[in-house]
Amino acid sequence: MKTIYINHALEDWKKRIESDYRRLEQCQIRVISNGYILPYKRIPLTRERVSRDVYAGGVLDSNGKFITGTERRKGDGVMAYECKEAYDFLPEEVIESDETVIFGGEIIKAFGHCITDSLTRLWFLAENPQRYKIVFCKDIQKPIPETFNLVMKSLGIEDNQWEVCENITRYANVIVPDQGWLLYYGYSDKIAKLYDKISCNMIATQHFSKKIYLSRTRFEKKDCFGEMYFENFYKKLGYEILYPEQLLLKDQIAAIRNATDVACTAGTLSHLLLFAKEKTKATILIRCNEPGALTPQFMINQMKKIDCTWVNISNNFLPTTHAGGVFLITSTDEWKEYVNDLGVLDMVEYDIEKELLPYLIKWTQVYSAGGAVWKKIKDMDMFDVLNNFSYELLGIELERKKMKSVKQLSNTQSGSDNQVTRAELMEALYSLEGRPNVNYKSVYKDVPQKYEHAKAIVWAYENGVAGHTDFFQPNNAFTKEKCITFLYRYSMKHNYLTFIEENVLTDYSDKGKVSDYAMKPMKWAVTNGIIIGSCSRGIKSLNPQGIMNYTQMVKVICIMMNKIISSK
Predict the structure, then answer these.
(1) Stretch 315-338: mean pLDDT
(2) pLDDT per position as a tens digit, 245-300
(3) Which residue has the higher pLDDT, 319 or 123?
(4) In the chain, at which end, N or C, are there fewer CB atoms within 10 A of the end residue's CB?
(5) In a 10 Å sphere around its CB, with 0-12 CB exposed, 13-18 middle and 19+ buried, how is residue 133 labelled?
(6) CB–CB of 367/388 below 8 Å?
(7) What is the pLDDT of residue 407?
């Protein structure tokens, strides 16, 4: 049986999943005499610092030179929850202490980060008896999570043995253990001992099965649509269904420690495998095609020697991100292949109609301007959806009056089935580009200067999106393969999504109907998940000569731009 059921950018996924993340073997401790610990302060947002959760502070030597704070990856730049610099202070602000303390790093409120980043220096305590107080830093605007308190108690550390730095303090000595875990870089084997110690000290209040499915369906935050299908599937396979948010932390950890088979969607739930026994079997269902965002999970799986199967169930035709996103998960072709390889029947019916409207409404709420709830999606046309995406994620607002087809279709029930002209597609891409200034040129004999889409067509010609022929045929409809060809040229213009898998069309029954000029663009589109075709009774098809309608055009543009943003 395969271990990776992913069609989109498979080679990239394989490379990341199979990489060696054991990169921090030489974890050591440093002792800083007369060292300072500075409380974390938020750094103001700039073009370079787009995250609100970036800090200055941390440990300084006796001369005020910055020693360490928090890292999540190696290299230049800074990302959320990092502290890579100090700040200026006056001598009279310093409190003197004759204590020797251990710098514990940063406490982060979010559960997934709390059980990873917040414990990164505590490997030291798994190897050495605690003799000194531990001093942590944190964002002063966020409370200490109860998860952190419980983990500290599981390590035998009482409340009076650790504290959060609230004032600039110079200590007799600051013991600084190296980080045993950098979330987007690598880990040390030393950190694994810490999680074993925590899980062994957690005593459950109830008994759990050996095969468990961790479900998000009862999470207070409703952001994943379609999961009930998967929950029911695993229930019929004999898995016990657990709802971690409704369990005590000790029971979550004990359930994972006891399990021989774990299934769940990728994210915070799968991070609980930190507490699993080595070589536990796991099936992780991918709800967002961002392999880079799953680096922490790849590290966890390697560190705990998890026997993992990856299955793509993502069908996010609207853009999203792994952090704080909105997800539509469905019975994809990859899922069906996985089920077939299990040797079982797909015993549950997936109801897409039930999931689609709540997904669209939630997506609109999350990605609306300023966080305000937009009007319900049922009152929106496809232009609103594309414009919302374009404005929120690209900073570009489309112009309805420039897109004639949208204006005509706005108030018609059947409008989404109307054909789109070649000129209208150029207008959409030109709008996504920000409608740069274009000087008219007579590049096509059938596109005069007074033609309403002339600027968009000239822009497409000058940028290699449209071909260099005598006639453009602006009012003609276009086929699926022609649409994909235009999008391919647009993507190549920006050097986006350049990877193409040569044999990706092998299993499609109508690949021979793809025109020679469109063969490479179609391979590009399937490789990058922009189109997946259709599957009927096990026969996959692309329908390259099918005429594109308005809804289909908007969908493939949204998917393409989502993939581009996810790949950055």
Answers:
(1) 82
(2) 999 999 999 999 999 999 999 999 999 999 999 999 999 999 988 888 899 999 99
(3) 123
(4) C
(5) middle
(6) yes
(7) 36
Q: Between helices 249-258 and 146-154, what is the axis angle to 10°?
A: 60
**Residue with token string 């259709």:** 534
> 549 is written with which tokens?
């309608």
Q: In angstroms, rounded to a whole number, what is the distance separating the alpha carbons of residues 520 and 478?
A: 18
36-42 and 169-170 strand pairing: antiparallel
Buried b (16+ CB within 10 A) or exposed e, 273-300: bbbbbeebebbbbbbbbbbebbbbbbbb
Q: Encode pLDDT of 86-99 as tens digits.
A: 999 999 999 999 99
Place of tokens 């308190």: 149
Contact residues for 169 (Cβ-Cβ < 8 A; gap 6+): 36, 37, 94, 95, 96, 97, 135
| Structure tokens given for 529 | 């998940």
C-alpha span between 515 and 522 (Å, rounded) = 10
List Cβ neighbours of 219 (8 Å cut-off, separation of 6 or more): 243, 245
Strands 261-265 and 211-214: parallel
DSSP structure class, residue 145: P
CA 114, CA 150: separation in Å to the nearest integer? 11
Q: Of the candidates 155, 66, 88, 86, which has an alpha carbon nearest to the alpha carbon of residue 118?
A: 155
3-state secondary structure of 290: coil
Q: Give residues with Cβ within 8 angstroms of 129, minimum separation 6.
A: none
Contact criterion met (CB below 8 Å) for 333 and 343: no
Q: Residues in the chain, how many?
A: 568
Minimal CA–CA distance to 105: which of 171, 178, 26?
Answer: 178
Cα-based distances in Å from 10 to 51, 173, 359, 529? 30, 50, 27, 10
pLDDT digits (tens, 9 = 90+) for 438-480: 999 999 999 999 998 899 999 999 999 998 889 999 999 889 9
Q: Which helix (H) or strand (E) holds 308?
A: strand 307-312
